[in-house]
Amino acid sequence: MNNQRNGTLSTITTVTQTNSAGSCSCNCPCGCGCGGTGAGSPQGQQPNSPSPSPIPQGQPNSPYNPTPQPQSPCNPQPNSPNTPQPDAGGSSGTDAAGEVGVVTATPEQDDVEYLAPVKIGGQTINLDFDSGSSDLWVFNTQLSPQITRGHQVYNPAASKTFKLLQGQTFSISYGDGSAASGNVGTDVVEIGGVAVQNQAVELATKVSQTFIQDTQNNGLLGLAFSKLNTVQPQQQKTFFDNILPSLAEPVFTADLRHNAVGAYEFGRIDNSKFTGQLAWIPVNTAMGFWQFTTSSFSVGNSQAQRVAPAQAIADTGTTLMLVSQAVANAYYSQVQGARNDPNAGGVIFPCNTNLPDLFVDVGGRYMARIKGDDIRFAQIDATTCFGGVQPTTSGLEIWGDIFFKSQFVVFNGGNNSLGMAQHV
């Protein structure tokens, strides 16, 4: 499997795995859709996993394994995670307290990534919203026509509001080995009716092959904390940090769906999108991620099992859900025919097998249910499917779109917390 993407910024030590077909190329049997929130040359490589076995014993060489290594085991900050929940209603504009905006989140094939329309200087471009990085960069007219063929391209010369930031550059690398670099300007950036007048827009002059091949994706919009932004010599703020004071509520929400159009919303929590009450989890911002502790899990109807506490991040820019070896082993031991296949790049199983739900602890306050149907990621041949939950040997678990397809998630920038509830 080569069509997953790892949208985690590799600002810390990154170990990117590749298989014989190359890192996140678009020649895999599940279709194309590479690219990711975090590119750049791999700085290392993990050894091959053992031979296939009924229970996976290790992670094979695969292109999606993120490996930002935590610098220290940070505990969640003691923030108060309560936040008002506005009534469900309109989609965009201004309410009594501030601005609200919503855009569609459209999946590529196999839900590899979700793309949303963004207006930059009045020009609409589909971007990948990535809560695992903090740069907004785009395909633009500084790239050659050979590179931009098939892409939506931002033209700064056609914008009356673009301003070049002299001497400012960016260079970003992601956990899947992809990368982009170039120069920087500012322009009006609008998402669903809410706009930042002087948002930093990074103009790529170099992009990796995975981005070039993925013609539906025209750049990334980072939604992690601004401390991860790569612009030098003057670091820039994310769109969310800039728009935060203007929003009706200091939040954005991710409503990503299995093989269906979802939404990103800024400034409001739509109560019609989830069931029950939101659980609030403080996040640790030390590394710039939406990061929390996880320390238990259960499979199907079994009792919860404790595991060594680990750090995890909520990352809309990564395709799969990457968990500890212990959790992956326990889960796939309950899946008939599951085995670790180095050629496929991870754990596979017969497509007709029943998959149990996976329950994972979030910050000691919530057990999130990942539906078995969402873990059946993609077919690699007529009878074999690739698992959406895979093991990682990194010290940081990456909970990507497989997680989000089962959970409605609120990112609260007012008190640095995450709200979670089961999708309707």
From TrEMBL:
Catalytic center residues: D130, D315
Listed Low complexity bias regions: 85-98
Localization, UniProt: Secreted
One MF annotation (Gene Ontology) recorded for this entry: aspartic-type endopeptidase activity
Peptidase A1 domain location: 114-421
GO biological process: proteolysis
Superkingdom: Eukaryota
Similarity comment: family membership: Belongs to the peptidase A1 family.
Name of the featured protein: WGS project CABT00000000 data, contig 2.30
